[in-house]
Amino acid sequence: TRQLLENNNMLHVNPVETPAMSPPLTLRDRDLDSIESLRDVDAQPLREIVGSLLWLSTKTRPDIASAVSNIAKVINEPSSRTWMAVKRVLRYLRGTCDIGLRFRMDPENKYPTLIGYSDSDWATDTDSRKSVSGYALFLANGVIHGVRKAQTVVSCSTAQAELIALHNATNECVWIRRLLADLGFQQSESTTI
After folding, report:
1. Which range, 6-15, 23-32, 54-63, 101-110, has the best average confidence (pLDDT)?
2. Which of 17, 14, 20, 72 is nearest to 46 (CA)?
């Protein structure tokens, strides 16, 4: 993270508290920009930065995944708002590059319980009208698996979007429970999602 900030002269900028712009970028944003501002956008360094942000979001920084995903959707036709969104993510990283997660095992609990959380939105992607699902599975006070991705179908209601997210989380939970059993950490209770 520090290397990315240093390479893009963002190591000494003022940080922001959230990585995403409000409202988020959409494919229609390029219609809002003038032709002159589109000519000023140099796409090559922008693509390199977004590629680095995508790598970061999948390896060590899942907190930027949503914002970077929205930026990646419009990277083929960048605008001045695309640059603003990238700089906002970098400013967020500047403020959070020293923050991390610490996983601790509860010494009294020899076999920690697997717990899951699931959520979705309803049709927030204004381009495809697809909902976005997310879930996280916790073991021993820490996240062991988390996913955020667009659903494969267009949901007709918030209830349907939530059920699709819950279904995906449940499938992953069953797999993790089987893996834990193979490793000798048999779950004696049912998993709460």
Report:
1. 6-15
2. 72
- Please tell me the predicted confidence (pLDDT) of residue 76: 82
* Torsion sign across C-alpha atoms 60, 150, 69, 55: positive
DSSP 8-state class, residue 19: S
- 118-160 residue pLDDT tens: 999 888 777 788 888 889 998 877 788 888 788 889 999 999 9
Name all contacts of 166-174 with Cβ < 8 Å and 24+ positions apart: 166/118, 166/193, 168/118, 168/133, 168/135, 169/116, 169/117, 169/118, 169/135, 169/137, 169/193, 170/116, 172/116, 172/135, 172/137, 172/145, 172/147, 173/114, 173/116, 173/137
Identify the pLDDT of residue 34: 46
Helix (H) / strand (E) containing 142: strand 142-150
Q: What is the mean pLDDT of residues 5-34?
A: 76
Q: Are 118 and 193 in contact (CB under 8 A)?
A: yes
Query: Distances from the Cα of 113 to the Cαs of 13, 175, 178, in angstroms?
Result: 42, 15, 13
Distances (CA, A) of 24 to 31, 87, 114, 149: 15, 14, 33, 16
Question: What is this structure's pTM?
Answer: 0.70
Measured distance CA(113)–CA(123) in Å, rounded? 33
User: What is the rounded CA–CA span in Å between residue 63 and residue 47?
Assistant: 20
